[in-house]
Amino acid sequence: MKRAKGNKKIKCVLAIETSCDDTSVALVEAPGKVLAVRSLNQDDLHAPFGGVIPELACRNHTLALLPLLNEVFVESGIGWKDIDGIAVTSKPGLIGSLLVGVSTAKTLAYLNDKPLIGVNHIEGHLHAPLLTFGDYAPPPDFDYPFVGLCVSGGHTSLHHVKALGKYTLLGRTLDDAAGEAFDKFGKLIGLGYPAGAKLDKLARGGRRDAFDFPRPLMKKDELNFSFSGLKTAGMMLVRERPEVLENKSDVCASYQEAIVDVLVAKLKRAVEKTGLKRAVITGGVSANSRLREAAQNWAAADGVQLLIPPLKLCTDNAAMIGLVGLLRLARGEKSDLKLSPEAFMKVSELS
Ligand code: KG4
Ligand code: ZN
Q1: Is-above-0.70 flag for pTM?
Q2: Are 285 and 178 in contact (CB under 8 A)?
């Protein structure tokens, strides 16, 4: 496989991810085997506030990070002598959260005399399906180039992934991310925060055609997304006809179907436009059971090889950061100890 090539001295990396409210540490071995991954989400801490509170997130990263680090070493049975480098998410994300991970990684790299590499969080998501973890492994013939749909709470974008570091941005959301469309509507109908997984569960018993929600930009011959109109339509329905919430399952199934229809239609269009026959879906929303089902149905019908990683690799995790770090270190790249976190990323970085 192309991705396995590189400097054979880089065999195992320690990876840290703290870009938002999930603290995660992983050990990843070449060419992409997850030896151990430990993640702690802070959902219960932020739930009473209805969203992520940045100060709370970074304070809790400082509490969680070192115990998780200890756990991955214990679980894998390996020691510092087996580590060839340290990878850390350096952008984009909440600046205070990123700072905790980056400062910790820099300190560990300095103390243990290991090379350091800063990794882009979205690049990590795009590589998650290439990891080997538990029973999951990408098919041996799956490699670059592929179309990547990244759908999370903060991002919704489509990429032509040509090789490590070679990407073309095909489309992105013009307003809300798909995860936000789930979270904000879910919060409105009393599902708390984050609402995606709860809405998914409720939708399983509901009728997908009970309500006709808009599918923004779906028919347009472009690859950008827009979810704010759908969110407003959901809000209007609940405000004008509050009785519809007597059957939340129908409301959730119909609302979810609108998001899924748009995501699958755009992925299909991206595959057709690029002429590629390989695709991945990644990011927290790729945990959605209906999206998985609809996308797999489309892929089977169109003869497309589609990878969607297991749930633990869909949401924010350090293993995906470890894989990108491993590949970049193996080809001789590294960051210096001046590495600084960056909250934002230029669109051109992944284009
Ligand atoms: O990738 P991720 O863990 O963090 C970000 O980088 O944003 O994604 C979190 C998002 C949240 O919006 C959450 O509601 C959504 O993923 N999510 C889901 C499901 N599980 C998580 N959305 C729909 N269905 C799910 N099963
Ligand atoms: Zn993410």
Answers
A1: yes
A2: yes
